[in-house]
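== Fold encoding ==
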Amino acid sequence: MSAKELQINLEFSAGAELLFGNIKRRKLSLDGTVKFASLLKWMHANILTERPELFLQGDTVRPGILVLINDTDWELLGELEYELQPNDNVLFISTLHGG
């Protein structure tokens, strides 16, 4: 039995892209069933290039980073327990700004 391939889109906005090599959009192909918590771990290990403390706090997204999945607040979808679906669009928006 082969694992199903899951394709999703990641987007970073309002400064969040600076933590990910200044890349605003990425297409990912992941194997099998993936919960949001696993996606965050994958992102930390593979594409988070700058100051992880500005993106993650413990095992979750730091307060001040808004997360939208298909234009819906991730808090309404179960946050870390949300099971990613084919062609999901995950948008991270930073509200953290220096002054």
